[in-house]
Write a structure and sequence with these properties.
By secondary structure, the chain is an all-alpha fold. The chain has one domain. It is built from 8 helices and 2 strands. It has a two-stranded antiparallel sheet with strand order 1-2. Helix 4 runs antiparallel to helix 6 and helix 7 packs antiparallel against helix 8. The longest helix has 27 residues. It is elongated, with a radius of gyration of 23 Å.
């Protein structure tokens, strides 16, 4: 009697496929959503608002560094010929990146409110509606972040995928609100 070939279990194949899929590296969602701030830099430069442009350039850099999964970045410009042996380790300086990121965020919020306060819009229904729309983007961002922090929802949801989606939404809505301010300036 000849032995029949062993029957392959389809579940085993799926498990191997899942493990192989998990090993693939991908760029995190929040790094991509941080790139939207480059549009604010371009718009601010177009409107000759160099303070806004500098603040958003700083925010773009710190946000990408903060949300990046990469832990080592080669700084050849800073280290010159020693760049092959010495590397800047983001993991060891994570607190510094977080502080710079928060500083950039608070600077943009303060400058945005100051700019909104000093806008020379006409006193008509359209300008009041425009300011209300800008303020609603600010309120939405504050609500989704701070209320979410206190209630462990939105950006602080226990499910990392959900929290990342809300945080990406926060990047988008904040960017839109600041675009509205930049474009309203004379």
């Amino acid at each position: 009697m000849t032995a029949s070939p062993p029957i392959k279990n389809p579940k085993i194949k799926r498990k191997k496929h899942r493990k192989r899929h998990k090993k693939q590296k991908s760029v995190p969602l929040l790094v991509f959503s941080s790139l939207v701030f480059i549009t604010n830099v371009i718009t601010a430069l177009y409107k000759s608002d160099f303070i806004y442009a500098a603040l958003f350039a700083l925010l773009t850099a710190t946000s990408i560094a903060f949300h990046s999964k990469m832990r080592r970045i080669q700084c050849s410009a800073l280290l010159g010929e020693y760049s092959n042996t010495y590397r800047y380790d983001l993991a060891s300086n994570f607190a510094n990146v977080a502080i710079l990121d928060k500083l950039a965020i608070y600077s943009i919020v303060c400058y945005g409110f100051w700019s909104l306060y000093n806008l020379n819009l006409e006193s008509n229904m359209g300008s009041y509606l425009w300011r209300g729309l800008i303020l609603s983007t600010f309120c939405f961002c504050i609500w989704i972040y701070y209320y979410g922090y206190t209630e462990k929802q939105f950006c602080f949801h226990p499910n990392k995928k959900n929290s990342n989606h809300y945080h990406a939404l926060l990047h988008m809505v904040g960017s839109i609100g600041h675009h509205m301010i930049i474009l309203s300036k004379n």
